[in-house]
Amino acid sequence: MKAKKITIAIPTDFPPYGFVGTDLKPQGLDIDMANYIAAKMGVAIELAPVTSANRIAYLQTKKAELVISTLGKNPEREKVIDFTAAYSPFFQAVFAPKSVALKSFADLGGKSIAVTRGAIEDQELSKLAPSSADIKRFEDNNATVSAFVSGQVAAIATGASVAGNMMAKNPQLGTEYKLLLKDSPNFIGVGKGEDKLRLKVNEIISEGKKNGDIDKMAVKWLGRPAGALPD
């Protein structure tokens, strides 16, 4: 790529992937990844804040060359944009304080777990938890988080974004990732037919997976390594 600058669309309303810090600057896993790619390409970066609703349009209208914004890959989206290899996990999991020993789903027996009624994590937890687990369902994420933070339950089953935000706001709880419920990784969006850029970004992602940089970013923001991600 000959350009001296790359414009990358990022989220600012979805912690821990992208949010505005106390210094009023964007931060999060997706922002770290955007800066990482620009640095590896040797170009300056311009960050363009986007929402879930307009992020794909930014590629289609060439307002951004890449979208790094918790983008899942599906056939509908593949008709209008291209995707790189996956760069980060997006997952639902069980989280609990360090002091709570949870090595397998069997360990949830006799323990209370907060979950949002009808969410993906509720469906997965219902399949995986033993019948002796005390699953307490709440009507929205705020109520679920509140129950866990106030100590009404021993553990919480929720998505990576909700958990990351909760852990950042309540460091005193010593909450950590315990058990994976479901994985649905994030991909970087590229303009349709921009193969040269897509392949270059894939090289950077591949190198980052091999040297541990991708895992470090995931540990920093999500509390667990990225693990095996699809190409």
Question: Can you describe what's shown?
Answer:
The chain is of the alpha/beta class and 231 residues long. The chain folds into two domains: 5-90 and 184-222, D-Maltodextrin-Binding Protein, domain 2; 91-183, 3-Layer(aba) Sandwich (D-Maltodextrin-Binding Protein, domain 2), CATH 3.40.190.10. 34% of the residues lie in helices and 31% in strands. It is built from eight helices and 13 strands. The protein has helices spanning 29-41, 55-60, 75-78, 120-128, 141-149, 160-169, 195-211, 213-222, and strands at 5-11, 13-14, 18-20, 26-27, 44-50, 66-71, 81-88, 91-97, 112-116, 134-138, 155-159, 175-183, 186-191. The strands form three sheets. The protein has a five-stranded mixed sheet. It has a five-stranded mixed sheet with strand order 10-9-11-8-12. A three-stranded antiparallel sheet has the order 2-3-4, covered by helices on one side. A hairpin with a 3-residue loop joins strand 2 (13-14) and strand 3 (18-20). The longest helix has 17 residues, at 195-211. It is elongated, with a radius of gyration of 19 Å. The two termini are 22 Å apart. The mean pLDDT is 94.
